[in-house]
Write a structure and sequence with these properties.
About 60% of the residues lie in helices and about 0% in strands. It has helices at about 80-100, 110-135, 140-165, 170-190, 195-225, 235-265, 270-300. Helix 1 crosses helix 7 (about 270-300), helix 2 (about 110-135) runs antiparallel to helix 3 (about 140-165) and helix 6 (about 235-265) packs antiparallel against helix 7 (about 270-300). The radius of gyration is 21 Å and the shape is globular. It starts with about 80 loop residues before the first helix and ends with a helix.
Amino acid sequence: MRSSNPVFSRRGFSRDNGYAGFNAQQPQAGGPAVGTDPYATGNPYAGGAANPYATNPYAPQDTQLGAPQQARGNVMTIDDVVSRTAMTLGTVVVTAVLSWLLLPVDPANLTKSYGIAIGAALVALVLSLVQSFKRKPSPALILSYAAFEGVFLGVISAAVSTYIADGVVTQAVLGTMAVFAGVLVAYKMGWIRVNRRFYGFVMAAAMGFMLLMVVNLLFSVFGGGDGLGFRSGGLGILFGVIGIILGACFLALDFKQVEDGVTYGAPREEAWLAAFGLTMTLVWIYLEMLRLLSILQGDD
């Protein structure tokens, strides 16, 4: 599964071989016949799709989901994804903590701190764009993105905790972890079915959400205040909840991406793409959680 939008990008692994996920391929000679997959219901590879990683010499040759597969070298595993994600998220956390400690948000330095945060956010955006359009994952690029994202999060979190709601950062972190755990359990239990319809709905909803946020930003810049009111009050709470739900949906897409990559034998280096996607999603959820909790506590 893949989107060209880096904010919502859930790239399929091994782009040289086409989409891994929601772009079903035509059966190849010698491949399983159409309709023979017992997992066809709700499976985006239904219809006898060929293994999207067939050109990987280490990939399993049996394309049937659930079929016994011989473990071979240079293929992505869950351990690879966990370790790369830990490195990427760890970089975000470390740089966020350092930014909180080293970039004071007191009134005398507030403008400077905000300027650094905005600059870091722009650099992180550019790096994410570059990675999103690269054909192969770049660990250095992904970790650099994580570092600049951490600077942005550290300054913003410190400002919110200092001037809006003390203790809200801890609550937002715990809330993000709860969403991650909840979606993981729901996905593993089969309560969330990631298929073409789910993917299309999530992408349409996310694009609509971002469009409304951009319009609100333009109104706030040229009209002052909170624009259309999507970032405060009752509407702010509603859109905060919607943002968190969208983040949860993207987590499900991330889990599907990882599952397909492991099942079909994606190259090991593609674990970095999984880490990149998971990090972007968790940052999204954290920011929406932070904003929602700030509004709720600010209204008390």
